[in-house]
């Protein structure tokens, strides 16, 4: 296979790319491909989707199935093709002439793209295809403007250099949801001491409805990102920058957010049961209507603006000393055992108090004028 990234375009390639197959030819290729289904492989739904795309001249197509091959011809109307998690796919042998965006994500068996990229290609995204050795033919120079290749360790060295992604300049905000989720899962599973700031930069990214359950995201930059309705259950997000991000209706059950900066982030309607916020900065964080049952906030802090807790629930949560509870939903205490730290009951929540009431502790926690943001009495009086 020719993997020279600067090979001249040949006349035969031009002819191939500019020849648009007829609808009859494409339909026949798809139906033939469907009839060649290997044992244990399901192509019927993919074929039906491709035929619908052909009939309606659709421009976008996503294939997410363990298919071993693709049809010899694809609908010529396609300008954006996403192959997401096609773990059995070994080769891509045809691409429509008018294709502008190709995304190949988590195709762990893919070894080659044995057809040249169309000259119309504007964006190429290949994430975590560890067996991919090369892409046939010339790589168009415009790919330098929009390319993302990551986790393709077997890729030909020359092509890998040509397609290197300047993460320090572009971040990951241009990635699609599928590309971004594949990338962050790979990042979480392959942490190492030498990773730089660019590798940890997930700022301004869209994780709407994404599943980040259990990921290790310590020390990342996820500020200005969108986590609406995302699942961050049991995620480790410590020592991280997560400022001005949107977690509306997200689930963060038992997440660990210790020593992170959440300032001005929005957790409206979010589920934060059992979340840990030891040493976490929560200036002007919006917890409106959030469920913070069993949340550990005793070590959290704020310095300029109080967190907003209107409609928030704190059953058996350990509160942050000094926070205002105006508008919070506080119920009757139950018989739940106290936390491991020394606390007093405050309605159905807990308020931490010092183990030893020496003069320093008395001043720090009870002197409203000197330490207004940490004063226990302020929290109690705000009920």
TrEMBL record:
Source species, domain of life: Bacteria
Pfam families: Pentapeptide
Entry protein name: Pentapeptide repeat-containing protein
């Amino acid at each position: 296979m020719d993997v020279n990234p600067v090979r001249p375009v040949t006349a035969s390639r031009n002819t191939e790319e500019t020849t648009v197959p007829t609808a009859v030819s494409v339909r026949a290729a798809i139906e033939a491909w469907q009839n060649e289904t290997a044992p244990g492989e399901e192509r019927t739904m993919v074929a039906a989707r491709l035929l619908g795309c052909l009939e309606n001249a659709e421009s976008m197509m996503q294939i997410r199935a363990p298919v071993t091959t693709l049809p010899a011809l694809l609908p010529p109307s396609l300008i954006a093709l996403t192959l997401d998690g096609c773990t059995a796919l070994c080769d891509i042998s045809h691409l429509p002439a008018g294709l502008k965006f190709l995304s190949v994500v988590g195709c762990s068996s893919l070894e080659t793209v044995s057809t040249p990229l169309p000259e119309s290609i504007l964006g190429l995204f290949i994430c975590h295809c560890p067996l991919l050795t090369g892409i046939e033919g010339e790589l168009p120079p415009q790919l330098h403007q929009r390319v993302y290749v990551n986790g393709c360790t077997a890729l030909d060295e020359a092509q890998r250099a040509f397609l290197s992604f300047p993460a320090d300049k572009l971040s990951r905000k241009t990635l699609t949801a599928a590309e971004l989720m594949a990338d962050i899962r790979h990042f979480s599973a392959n942490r190492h001491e030498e990773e730089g700031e660019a590798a940890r930069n997930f700022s301004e990214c869209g994780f709407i409805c994404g599943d980040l359950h259990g990921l290790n995201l310590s020390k990342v930059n996820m500020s200005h990102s969108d986590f609406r309705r995302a699942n961050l259950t049991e995620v480790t997000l410590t020592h991280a920058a997560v400022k001005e991000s949107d977690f509306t209706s997200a689930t963060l059950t038992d997440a660990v957010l210790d020593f992170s900066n959440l300032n001005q982030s929005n957790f409206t309607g979010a589920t934060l049961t059992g979340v840990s916020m030891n040493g976490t900065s929560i200036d002007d964080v919006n917890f409106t209507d959030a469920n913070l049952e069993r949340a550990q906030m005793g070590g959290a802090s704020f310095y300029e603006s109080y967190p907003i807790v209107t409609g928030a629930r704190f059953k058996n949560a350990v509160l942050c000393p000094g926070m205002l509870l105006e508008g919070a939903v506080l119920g009757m205490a139950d018989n739940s055992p106290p936390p491991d730290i020394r606390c007093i009951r405050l309605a159905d929540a807990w308020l931490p108090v010092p183990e030893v009431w020496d003069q320093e502790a008395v001043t720090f926690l009870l002197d409203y004028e000197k330490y207004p943001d940490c004063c226990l009495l302020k929290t109690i009086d705000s009920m």
